[in-house]
Write a structure and sequence with these properties.
- It is built from 18 helices and 17 strands.
- It has helices at 2-7, 11-15, 25-44, 53-68, 94-104, 124-134, 145-157, 178-184, 200-206, 233-242, 267-272, 298-306, 309-312, 317-331, 339-345, 348-362, 403-412, 436-460, and strands spanning 76-77, 112-113, 118-119, 138-142, 161-165, 171-172, 176-177, 188-192, 211-217, 246-252, 277-281, 292-296, 369-377, 389-397, 415-416, 418-420, 423-427.
- Strand 10 (246-252), helix 11 (267-272) and strand 11 (277-281) form a beta-alpha-beta unit.
- The chain starts with a helix and ends with a helix.
- The structure holds pyridoxal-5'-phosphate.
Length: 461
């Protein structure tokens, strides 16, 4: 046993080994010590009777790779859900990235007034375009919409009352709950109405001398049908402004324009009524980077800027640049540069021909049965709930592999798909044609591997 222990390679000797020349020494040392300790334990508990240096080196390398490999990778979204928070929400178009690349890799005037040679505000790059687009008085950008809600309620509602309908105390994916954020901001929540019906008089009757804000929240990913009623934001604005209160709409998705829908309130329409404050996400229907965008009255935005919380919720230059480029795409009506809108707008005929192209590739793969079907996709991200977008998809299954196993293999190969009626459903809405060959190779590889395993099994029997 002592001989075995003595035969273990020394740390310093391994550190100098050429096989590890690409490794960072401090991380490598850590991995060497871990593996050598394991080996020592194995020898002491008599689980090891010989020492193979090559195996030890391989184990060290495996551990090193495990600790240092990248955990994020591109995926193919075959779910048909355009805004998937788990899959990174809105995509940024390569053209947008091209525009911002020189600004990211060079110094720029993010917070610098060139003509005055003085410090300036990072927000002006965005506010100037938002004012042009929406005719709002002023704007501000924070890290995400949750931050925007927190900042607004904390600035104006702290130790005062904020009135909101019981039908809007919703929870949004990722455990964002309106009442919890209200609590965090230190505003006193005053619930009015009932789950299904809230009337203007409910708000009127709840106003006290302590009221600061009348808030409306988008119900996000849930929709009420049947015996229900709520008060439109423009009516709440009129009431609030008559009483000298702030009307605030947490709009969630932030739909600007570019879709054939009357299901989402458009920012253009809302801004026409000169609301006090509206906030929305940058990476939902708006189709930009993660951000919380606030638009509204100048004197209120100025107060938000004076809240020290803003420093903690500050956006970085990447967000500002990506947002600025997205806003310019809106101004020039280049909606194709906003993939979220482009995907939701893809005509059914294009989806059909895309589906046929992928079908032609998959058809050649042995052990795969498939058919084309008209299906529905969803916007996702708490936008346009229950609004189906007609799409085309491929339903497929393999007689030699359980659908759940096939799905797992596809997922691990980078393709995320739903299972519908015990078949894999590939919705073509969010799949790029550039990925067709990859998808086809992946199916072929999975099924070929499985056939191989099967024949191996039979050989052994
Ligand atoms: C999505 C959503 C939020 C949270 O926005 P994030 O940008 O994800 O922080 C807040 N309120 C509503 C109504 C939403 O739909």
């Amino acid at each position: 046993m002592i001989e075995l222990l003595q035969a273990l390679p020394k740390v310093d000797w391994l550190l100098k080994d050429n096989d590890f020349s690409h490794c960072s020494p401090s991380i490598l040392k850590n991995c060497i010590q871990t593996i050598l300790n394991q080996k020592r334990q194995e020898i002491l508990t008599s689980h090891s009777s010989s020492i193979q240096i090559q195996n030890i080196k391989q184990e060290i390398l495996d551990l090193y790779n495990l600790k240092t490999h990248s955990t994020i990778r591109p995926l193919i979204n075959a779910t048909g859900v355009v805004l998937q928070t788990n899959l990174g929400r809105s995509l940024l178009h390569p053209k947008i990235l091209e525009e911002i690349f020189p600004l990211l890799s060079n110094y720029n005037n993010l917070e610098y007034d060139i003509s005055q040679g003085k410090r300036s505000e990072r927000y002006i790059h965005i506010t100037h375009l938002l004012k042009t687009l929406l005719s709002c008085e002023d704007a501000l950008v924070v890290n995400n919409n949750a931050s925007a809600v927190l900042l607004i309620l904390n600035t104006f509602g702290k130790e005062k009352e904020t009135i909101i309908s019981r039908g809007e105390l919703v929870e949004i994916g990722g455990s964002f709950r309106i009442p919890e954020v209200m609590k965090l901001s230190n505003t006193n929540l005053v619930e009015v109405g009932t789950t299904n019906k809230t009337h203007l008089s409910d708000y009127q009757n709840a106003i006290t001398e302590n009221t600061a804000i009348i808030m409306k929240a988008h119900q996000s990913n849930f929709k009420q049908l049947g015996f229900c009623a709520n008060v439109s934001f423009d009516k709440l604005s009129v009431l609030a402004q008559e009483k000298g209160l702030i009307d605030y709409y947490d709009l969630g998705s932030g739909y600007m324009q570019g879709l054939q829908t009357d299901q989402e309130p458009s920012l253009f329409e809302l801004c026409k009524h000169s609301p006090s404050l509206i906030s929305f996400s940058g990476d939902k229907l708006f189709g930009g980077p993660q951000a919380g965008i606030i638009v509204g009255k100048s004197h209120l935005i100025n107060k938000l800027k004076q809240n020290h919380l803003l420093r903690a919720l500050r956006v970085d230059k990447f967000t500002i640049l990506a947002l600025e480029a997205t806003l310019r795409a809106y101004i020039s009506c280049e909606f194709e540069k906003i993939p979220t809108l482009a995907m939701l707008n893809t005509p059914l005929s294009s989806l059909k021909s895309k589906t046929q192209k992928l079908f032609a590739l998959l058809e050649k793969i042995p052990h795969l049965n498939l058919c084309i079907k008209q299906i529905d996709s969803l916007a996702g991200g708490g936008s346009l709930p229950q609004t189906p977008f007609a799409s085309y998809g491929i339903l497929c299954y393999s007689p030699i592999l359980k659908t759940s196993t096939l799905e797992k293999n596809l997922r691990e190969g980078g393709l995320i798909a739903r299972i519908v009626q015990d078949q894999i459903c590939l919705d073509l809405r969010c799949i790029f044609e550039d990925d067709f060959q990859k998808i086809s190779n992946l199916f072929a590889e999975i099924l070929a591997n499985h056939t191989k395993k099967d024949t191996n099994k039979h050989d052994k029997q």
